[in-house]
Amino acid sequence: MGMLISIIVFVVLIAVLYIAIRNSLIGKKNQVANAEASIDVMLKKRFDLLPNLIETTKAYMKHEQSVLVELTALRQQSHPIESANKPQLDKKLSAAVSHFKVAVEAYPELKANQNIELLMRSINETEEQISAARRSFNAAVTRYNNGIEMFPSSIIAQQMQLTALPLFEIADAERANIDAARLFKQ
């Protein structure tokens, strides 16, 4: 009788452990989805901000029309954003916004304009929020990947057919310093 109770207790403990690990993996997977959605929210905010930026600056930046044309074209490409194209489009938009910032820095009369100044602050805030969302995403992906790769949860992750997810990384070109002189020659 004592042996039967020991077996039942052991089976119950294994079942509770299995359920706890499974729920933990599901929670980690949902955290990744939530973090990815946060990036989407910030990209949408940037997407909505660009038309205002373009319209406000057209009157002041006739000589930098190519930057505005590039921003407009990228904005049109980004609607609707497909998951597969999201990283590439995000990189292009980030580069275009960086080019615009450099152009504004080069022309003090633009920086002095109140509308431009407000929009530049909004862009900086949005870029910081996107950066924070990316860090949050990478942290969630790391927790998720650790969860599915470590024993004993790796056994349950295999049963659930969970696979490791990639971190959000930037291209090597974006790691380099911006050459302002080269940008103005383009």
UniProtKB/TrEMBL annotation:
<keyword id="KW-0472">Membrane</keyword>
<dbReference type="Pfam" id="PF04011">
    <property type="entry name" value="LemA"/>
</dbReference>
<feature type="coiled-coil region">
    <location>
        <begin position="109"/>
        <end position="136"/>
    </location>
</feature>
<keyword id="KW-0812">Transmembrane</keyword>
<protein>
    <submittedName>
        <fullName>LemA family protein</fullName>
    </submittedName>
</protein>
<dbReference type="GO" id="GO:0016020">
    <property type="term" value="C:membrane"/>
</dbReference>
<comment type="similarity">
    <text>Belongs to the LemA family.</text>
</comment>
<dbReference type="InterPro" id="IPR007156">
    <property type="entry name" value="MamQ_LemA"/>
</dbReference>
<keyword id="KW-1133">Transmembrane helix</keyword>
<keyword id="KW-0175">Coiled coil</keyword>
<dbReference type="InterPro" id="IPR023353">
    <property type="entry name" value="LemA-like_dom_sf"/>
</dbReference>
